[in-house]
């Protein structure tokens, strides 16, 4: 029986996927769920004996559910292409699968790194490791969440997340996802955007990153990231404003 399936979600991640797959070498099966990569992502994945599943979804829940459907493992571990499973987390996962666990799913501690190797002070807790039989699926188009039948525990060790590696990738990510974020708000009938809403969401974004998540402890990188979060919020809501104006014109 396949014990652990590692599922990697990716698109054009040739510069990241090798390290990701190496950190999943303890898994009995690796699935790469790919959204039509045009670089060497799939070539590298095949070199590491990963199974390739291609799709054209934009809905993240559908992507994760596709991986769940194809997985043969008793346990499922989800990672993104810019994430790495630390040795301590690997040991914790293997220990869990070798015991008679009372939990149906586990949260992992995700440590984020920005602008190279600048460690972010705030540690996230995310549900990423599941008994396949108890994971009923994922919901949500962009900020997806799992539906689990049973108790949820917590693993030891970190999932290492190398996000916003440089300013170019940061801007590209904002350009890619701000439209999706704006569309979700538009579909939910977000209140009409007026001038005073912009400073409010921008200040909120900065304070959440710099104060609540203690970005100030990351020095200059923390300040840059926090200001960028404010800028990213501006772009998302400017796009929402644009959609709302276009809708009014059509009326």
Describe the structure in your own words.
- The protein has 251 residues and is an alpha/beta fold.
- The chain folds into two domains: 4-162, Alpha-Beta Complex (Spore Coat Polysaccharide Biosynthesis Protein SpsA, Chain A); 167-250, no CATH class.
- The protein has seven helices and ten strands.
- The strands form two sheets. Strands 3-2-1-4-7-6-10-5 form an eight-stranded mixed beta sheet, with helices on both faces. A two-stranded antiparallel ribbon has the order 8-9.
- Helix 2 links the parallel strand 2 and strand 3 (51-54).
- Helix 5 packs parallel to helix 7 and helix 6 packs antiparallel against helix 7.
- The longest helix is centred in the C-terminal third of the chain and has 32 residues, at 219-250.
- It starts with a strand and ends with a helix.
- The mean pLDDT is 94.
Instruction: Output the number of helix runs.
Output: 7
Straight-line distance between termini: 59 Å
CATH architecture of the largest domain: Alpha-Beta Complex
Query: Biggest sheet, in brief?
Result: 8 strands, mixed
Give the secondary structure arrangement, pairings included:
Layout: E1 4-10, H1 17-22, E2 29-34, H2 41-47, E3 51-54, H3 60-70, E4 75-80, E5 83-85, H4 87-97, E6 105-114, E7 118-131, E8 135-139, E9 145-148, E10 152-162, H5 167-187, H6 197-212, H7 219-250
Parallel strand pairs: 1-2, 1-4, 2-3, 6-10
Antiparallel strand pairs: 4-7, 5-10, 6-7, 8-9
């Amino acid at each position: 029986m396949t014990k652990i399936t590692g599922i990697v979600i990716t698109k054009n991640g040739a510069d990241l996927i090798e390290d990701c797959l190496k950190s999943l070498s303890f898994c009995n099966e690796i699935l790469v769920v790919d959204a039509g990569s045009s670089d060497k992502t799939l070539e590298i994945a095949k070199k590491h004996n990963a199974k390739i599943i291609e799709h054209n979804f934009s809905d993240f829940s559908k992507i994760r559910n596709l991986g769940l459907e194809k997985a043969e493992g008793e346990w499922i571990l989800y990672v993104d292409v810019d994430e790495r499973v630390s040795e301590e987390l690997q040991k914790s996962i293997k220990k869990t699968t070798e015991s008679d666990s009372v939990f149906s799913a586990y949260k992992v501690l995700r440590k984020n790194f920005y602008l190279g190797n600048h460690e972010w002070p705030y540690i996230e807790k995310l549900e990423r490791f599941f008994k396949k039989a108890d994971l009923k699926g994922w919901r949500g188009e962009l900020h997806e969440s799992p539906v689990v039948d049973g108790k949820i525990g917590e693993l030891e060790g970190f999932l290492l997340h190398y996000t916003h590696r440089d300013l170019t990738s940061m801007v590209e990510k904002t350009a890619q996802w701000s439209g999706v974020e704006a569309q979700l708000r538009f579909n939910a009938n977000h209140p009409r955007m007026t001038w005073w809403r912009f400073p409010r969401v921008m200040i909120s974004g900065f304070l959440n990153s710099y104060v609540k998540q203690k970005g100030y402890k990351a020095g200059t990188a923390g300040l840059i990231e926090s200001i960028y979060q404010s800028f990213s919020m501006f772009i998302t809501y400017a796009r929402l404003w644009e959609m709302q104006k276009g809708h009014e014109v059509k009326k």
